[in-house]
């Protein structure tokens, strides 16, 4: 309790909290885009529930990982060396998550571009994704993004209470933004392709980081913001042409 009061009275702790909240919210955008695209493939009556469960799982995973910080820190210790790079558990998890994102985004782009894409490789002849399949895929990516999120948090502060508050705020923002973002993506087909492009880029970045090539996050999010701005201008242009 004394530690909490000491943190509350420390200006540097508030600065660290504000910085970490911004970082966690930004990192949560990737997670939220994936959840929005995936749940939009479910029947309408299951979409909101799937989004709540997906974001709830993200919160549980992040808080659970915070309780095992000693183990999380050890995930960055090299397990073996290959191609001149020491691979850790974190690297392997990032590579696996990146490959999954690249595969998923490529498959979704193919389904949107090809009028007759044929049956899905893992879903057989089913025309629509099942609720359990959506939750399983969300859980997999939640795990990848949660580990990356917590390792980022550990690198920014040593105080667990600050990390917990930042995670709670970030997940609350995700929860509030989930339904509006999903509706916006569903109502604008071109935004779907843009979001899938983001997922493809994020997947490649995760793979690169897993192989030891650090990609500054600022460049990634600046490119995403610029692309989103151009798409917003295109939407305004199309809307203006319709009203003429």
Report on the structure:
The protein has one domain (2-243). With 244 residues, it is mainly alpha-helical. The radius of gyration is 19 Å and the shape is globular. The longest helix is centred in the N-terminal third of the chain and has 29 residues, at 11-39. The protein has a two-stranded antiparallel sheet. The protein has helices spanning 2-8, 11-39, 44-66, 69-74, 89-113, 131-156, 160-187, 189-210, 217-243, and strands spanning 78-82, 85-88. Helix content is 79%, strand content 4%. α2 crosses α8. This is TerC family protein. Belongs to the TerC family. InterPro entries: Integral_membrane_TerC. Keywords: Membrane, Transmembrane, Transmembrane helix. It is a multi-pass membrane protein.
Give the structure's gist in a few sentences.
The protein is mainly α and 244 residues long.
List the helices and strands and how they pair.
Blueprint: H1 2-8, H2 11-39, H3 44-66, H4 69-74, E1 78-82, E2 85-88, H5 89-113, H6 131-156, H7 160-187, H8 189-210, H9 217-243
Antiparallel strand pairs: 1-2
**Radius of gyration over all CA atoms, rounded:** 19 Å
Strand order of the largest sheet: 1-2
Strand content: under 5%
Count of the domains: 1
Q: Mean pLDDT, as a whole number?
A: 77
Oligomer: single chain
Main sheet attributes: strand count, strand direction, barrel closure: 2 strands, antiparallel
How much helical structure, as a percent, in the residues? Answer: over 70%
Taken from the alpha-carbon principal axes, the silhouette is globular
Category by helix and strand content: mainly alpha
Low-confidence stretches: 121-127
Order of helices and strands: HHHHEEHHHHH
Number of helices: 9
Give the tally of β-strands: 2
Q: How far apart are the termini? A: 64 Å
């Amino acid at each position: 309790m004394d530690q909490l009061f000491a943190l509350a009275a420390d200006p540097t702790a508030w600065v660290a909290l504000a910085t970490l909240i911004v970082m966690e919210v930004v990192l949560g955008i990737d997670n939220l885009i994936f959840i929005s695209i995936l749940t939009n493939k479910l029947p309408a009556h299951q979409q909101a529930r799937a989004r709540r469960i997906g974001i709830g799982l993200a919160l549980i995973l992040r808080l659970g990982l915070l309780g095992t910080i000693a183990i999380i820190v050890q995930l960055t210790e090299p397990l073996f060396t290959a191609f001149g790079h020491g691979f850790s558990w974190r690297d392997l998890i990032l590579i696996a998550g990146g490959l999954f994102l690249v595969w998923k985004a490529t498959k979704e782009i193919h389904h949107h571009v090809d009028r007759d894409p044929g049956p899905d490789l893992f879903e057989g002849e089913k025309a629509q994704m099942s609720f359990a399949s959506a939750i399983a895929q969300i859980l997999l990516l939640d795990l990848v993004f949660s580990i990356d999120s917590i390792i980022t948090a550990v690198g920014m502060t040593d105080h667990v209470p600050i990390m917990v508050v930042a995670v709670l705020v970030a997940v609350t923002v995700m929860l509030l933004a989930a339904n509006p973002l999903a509706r916006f993506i569903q109502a604008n087909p071109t935004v779907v392709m843009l979001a899938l492009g983001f997922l493809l880029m994020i997947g490649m970045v995760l793979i690169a980081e897993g192989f030891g090539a650090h990609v500054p996050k600022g460049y990634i999010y600046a490119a995403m913001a610029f692309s989103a701005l151009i798409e917003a201008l295109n939407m305004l242009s199309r809307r203006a042409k319709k009203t003429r």
